Amino acid sequence: MRIATFNTNSVRVRLPIVLEWIEKFNPDALCLQETKAQDKDFPIDAFEAAGYGCVFCGQKSYAGVAVISPKPVSDVTYGFEGKEGEEARLIACRIGSVDLVNTYVPQGRDPEAPQFKEKLAWLGRLRRYFESRFNPGSRVVWVGDFNVAPEAIDVYDPKRLLGHVGYHPEEHKALANVKEWGFEDVFRMHHPEGGLYTFWDYRARTALERNHGWRVDHIWATAPAAQKSTDSFIDRAPRLGERPSDHTFLVADFDL
After folding, report:
1. For a Cys-Cys bond, which of 14, 208, 210, 222 suits 140, CB 3.0-4.6 Å?
2. What is the pLDDT of residues 121-164, one digit of tens each?
3. pTM beyond 0.85, yes or no
4. Strand ranges (DSSP E) for 50-169?
5. For residue 151, what is the domain's CATH number?
């Protein structure tokens, strides 16, 4: 089973990139974040023409999450409570024997901003969500743009960046609290080395060329799923193409 994640920074703008990628890599589940499309505007027809079904939750201008898959998808839920009014940042479903949770964690803006405290609270709420809905003894895979680089090897300059949003001790603590529920970092199981990133900031014009990146996109799994992991990799090529997202694709393969 191949599971992938990609922050599109607008699914409609990045649609050619996504369609080309799924044709090449044939994922069983591709989780998208920051789709920036209301439900009525999601390009479902293009994905169905490529042989993929879609479940999605969107809103205008920002956020938005989706899962596309060629396999049957069941038990779809949206948000923490499944209620209207929440930002479109969480979608969960079941594909085969796997419970899949796709999240777009709030960015936080700045450690001094109210949005930073909201981000920490959101991660706390996510821990309670996993506790109430799932069992770490079952196959749960949590993916998405977590907007946190957990370790020093996950950022290009850990000394200078420590304390910045995305690489802040309070974020590390909040994310570790979720991880302690029962997750393993699948990519790190296969790649203990540094210098491998999923995000390069648009605002730094030479970030990609200098590999000034961050690993903020993740695929984490409970032990019963992680033990079936056979490989994980970052496909950097789409970030090098025309009209790219500032993120790229992260993939994990499982013998499931």
Report:
1. 222
2. 999 999 999 999 999 999 999 999 999 999 999 999 999 999 99
3. yes
4. 53-57, 65-69, 74-78, 90-95, 98-104, 140-145
5. 3.60.10.10
